[in-house]
Amino acid sequence: MGVDKKILVIPGDGIGQEVTAWGQKVLETIAVNYKHNFVFEEGIMGHVAIEATGNPLPDETLDKARKSDAILFGAIGHAKYDNDPTLKVRPEQGLLKIRKELGLYANLRPIKLFDELLEASSIKPEILRGADILFFRELTGDVYFGEKKRSEDRNTASDLMIYHRYEVERIARKAYEAARSRRKKLCSVDKANVLEASRLWREVVQEIAKEYPDVETEHMFIDNAAMQLVKDPKRFDVVLTANLFGDILTDEASQIAGSMGMLASASVGDSTGFYEPIHGSAHDIAGKGIANPLASILSAALMLDISFGLKTESLRVIKAVEATLKQGFRTMDIANKHTENHFVMGTDAMGAKVLENLS
Ligand SMILES: NC(=O)C1=CN([C@@H]2O[C@H](COP(=O)(O)OP(=O)(O)OC[C@H]3O[C@@H](n4cnc5c(N)ncnc54)[C@H](O)[C@@H]3O)[C@@H](O)[C@H]2O)C=CC1
Ligand SMILES: CC(C)CC(=O)C(=O)O
Ligand SMILES: [Mg+2]
After folding, report:
1. Residue 39 belongs to what H/E stretch?
2. What CATH number does domain 1-113+259-359 carry, 3.90.190.20, 3.50.50.60, 3.40.718.10, 1.10.10.10?
3. What is the CATH code of the structural domain delimited by 122-256?
């Protein structure tokens, strides 16, 4: 028996538009192959929404999001805002607001290296082989949501780094539960030697750790973690961290998987699930048709598994990606200059190869 699901697709800006089309096509193909009924709606967010309505997250999009079983998101952002920090209405506000409004406090970012991409990374293969990390990045607190201030003379600015006990408790429990079904190791990353918000974080994680005596807990400072991640990525299993640290560490960790274009994510919490690549709208390559669509396709796989419980279908998508890589097909970001038998192609050709491997 197939399942009925309502999926909201928010392509957003830049390469978000280009790659999300392939995440959606993969979901459509899975629906046909496994006789599910997926109904798709589209919503706008980010720069495109500001241009159309003046609002980076129009009420209509938020409304559709609340009514959906899952959301497939691309990316937001536009060079115009990056180049002019004085602009008050910004694409990123849309993404932050939808995360907060939907209570998406846990952002899962799996870092899994496909063997075929061992040579694509800037890190040595012997350091990378076997690396498999699951990040739990807190997503609705921290400096992203604390009070922002600018003095009247505009010469002083501050962003409040704020955490409440309950926010740390709920994401810590989720991370520990995940660690239990993996290698039973959890590393909590903070800056408790300096920051009061991190001291609360560490205190709460130490308390929650007592509920999970079967999981080995380690606490690490963010600066050390950033170094250890590239020195010896295999030492990590589950990494639990705050919003800002998780944002930065996972971009770094994308090099373990070969490219930003390979990393998918799932944001979960109080209601619907939200699935997106970890990358942004990538102005430098937007509109050129060369972005890697695999992060969006792998985000669709996470949706099938986490929101719909369709593990077989999710694995089918991952296998199709693996098969595509095994056949030597590569987008520019994961091509190895030293290998002759790679076929370097654009977004649409790569997406089409994955679809072929799904059929
Ligand atoms: N979740 C989101 O919507 C995010 C939005 N942004 C926004 O995106 C805009 C650009 O930000 P950046 O700092 O440049 O980060 P970015 O993640 O967009 O790009 C960083 C680098 O990775 C490359 N890259 C990213 N995705 C790729 C893909 N699928 N295939 C091949 N290469 C890929 C880009 O070409 C660029 O060189 C900004 O406006 C920023 O605010 C940034 C990060 C996350
Ligand atoms: C653009 C930010 C709001 C978000 C970000 O960089 C991320 O979620 O990875
Ligand atoms: Mg980021």
Report:
1. strand 37-42
2. 3.40.718.10
3. 3.40.718.10
Return the bridge partners of 109, or none: 135
CA of 248 to the centre of ligand 2 (A): 9
Domains 1-113+259-359 and 122-256 share a fold: yes
Other residues' Cβ atoms within 10 Å of the Cβ of residue 356: 14
Query: Kind of pairing, strands 185-190 and 238-241?
Result: parallel
The predicted pLDDT at position 359 comes to: 84
Q: Which amino acid is at 214?
A: D
The predicted-structure confidence for 203-221, as pLDDT tens digits, reads as follows 999 999 999 999 999 999 9
Q: Of 80, 85, 38, 54, give the one whose Cα is nearest residue 310.
A: 38
Q: Strand 132-138 relative to strand 264-268: parallel, antiparallel, unpaired?
A: unpaired
Binding site feature residues? 99, 109, 137, 223, 247, 251
* Residue among 10, 50, 281, 344 to mutate when testing ligand 1 (max atoms within 8 A of CB): 281
Q: What DSSP line would sit under 85-105, residue for residue? A: TT-SS-HHHHHHHHHHHTT--
Mean pLDDT of 125-131: 94
CB 20 within 8 A of CB 43: no
Q: Residue range 132-157: average pLDDT?
A: 98
User: Judging by beta carbons within 10 Å of its beta carbon (0-12, 13-18, 19+), is residue 12 exposed, middle or buried?
Assistant: buried
Q: Is 123 in the pocket of ligand 2 (CB under 6 A)?
A: no
Domain limits, the chain: 1-113+259-359, 122-256
H-assigned helices in the chain: 15-33, 47-53, 59-67, 79-82, 91-101, 125-128, 165-180, 196-209, 222-231, 243-253, 294-306, 311-326, 347-358
Residue 339 has pLDDT above 70, yes or no: no
21: nearest Cα among 356, 318, 316, 351: 351
